[in-house]
Design goal:
It is a single chain. The chain is built from 4 helices and 16 strands. With 270 residues, it is of the alpha/beta class. It has a single domain, classed as Ribonuclease Z/Hydroxyacylglutathione hydrolase-like (Metallo-beta-lactamase, Chain A, 4-Layer Sandwich). It has an 8-stranded mixed beta sheet with strand order 8-9-10-11-12-13-16-14. A hairpin with a 2-residue loop joins strand 10 and strand 11. Helix 3 runs parallel beside helix 4. It is globular. The relative contact order is 0.17.
Length: 270
């Protein structure tokens, strides 16, 4: 991508900044090739710090660090899921459509990070350290009725974990995107087809990223799509709740799929 060099420069600066600011750096999300020469600044955080991931449905998650920093991703409008009461510190928007950009849902005065400018016309470069969380984005393309449109994946580095929310990605990542994403522990990936990739291409993304945890999203309550995604080599764990906590110490040795439980009682595609 044309913006690769600029994104890489931002990533290197962020690593230096985070190392000086925190006197430590979390598990390196970014490809180690991007931070060569700066390893003396990098050391792992203390172990057993737990982050929580809560799924509200669709592409809407809340990620909470051990320090209490709350990040919302792609908040939806009314579309059949319960509408939660949320008080985030940060809201990320990867796609400027109604079921991904309802920032008004957030109480308080959070920082809004939009991956696109001009209502989706151009990519917006984000690379920032907010409290104890490093946040950066990666340009992607999203399926639309006629053609692909712009979207954004977001990467969050916190508590020794690297979490990637792929956004509504429509095709597997290319090499430039993989370099920008880096080493991911927890992958939040759409599987529904239509406006995103389907389960078969989502499996290819899992193979590309090789995370320890995969959370499928953007499939409503379509059990057949979920079963197609689960038909593979990775064990799956169904939860009785919509949230789970994870630390770098409790990550599984091999890739595992986690399916949080959410209520859904309607339909409004986007």
């Amino acid at each position: 991508m044309k913006r690769k060099s600029l994104f890489i420069s931002f990533a290197v600066v962020a690593v230096i900044w985070a190392g000086l600011w925190l006197n430590e750096i979390h598990a390196a999300c970014r490809n180690p090739n991007l931070v060569q020469g700066f390893e003396p600044l990098i050391r792992r955080v203390a172990t057993s710090r737990f982050a929580e991931i809560k799924w509200f449905g669709h592409a809407f998650f809340q990620i909470t660090s051990s320090a209490g920093t709350r990040i919302l991703t792609d908040p939806f409008r009314r579309m059949g899921y319960p509408m939660p009461e949320v008080w985030p510190h940060v809201v990320t928007v990867g796609k400027e459509t109604r079921n991904h950009s309802n920032v008004a849902l957030a109480n308080g005065n959070p920082l809004i990070l939009r991956g696109l400018t001009s209502w989706g016309g151009e990519w917006n470069e984000i690379n920032t350290l907010f409290r104890d969380v490093l946040i950066y984005n990666v340009p992607i393309h999203v399926r639309a009725p006629i053609e692909f449109i712009r979207g954004t994946a977001f990467v969050f580095e916190l508590d020794g974990l690297c979490i990637c929310h792929t956004g509504d990605i429509g095709e597997p990542f290319n090499e430039d995107q993989l370099d920008l994403i880096g080493n991911v522990d927890i992958l939040l990936v759409p599987i529904g087809g239509s406006y995103t990739m389907g389960p078969d291409k989502a499996k290819k993304v899992v193979a590309q990223i090789q995370p320890k945890i995969v959370v499928p999203m953007h499939y409503y309550n379509n059990g057949s799509i979920l079963r197609r995604f689960l038909d593979g080599p990775y064990p799956a764990r169904f939860l009785d709740t919509n949230a789970f906590s994870m630390s770098s110490d409790t990550l599984p040795r091999a890739t595992e799929i986690i399916i949080p439980k959410v209520a859904w009682h309607g339909w409004d595609d986007d």
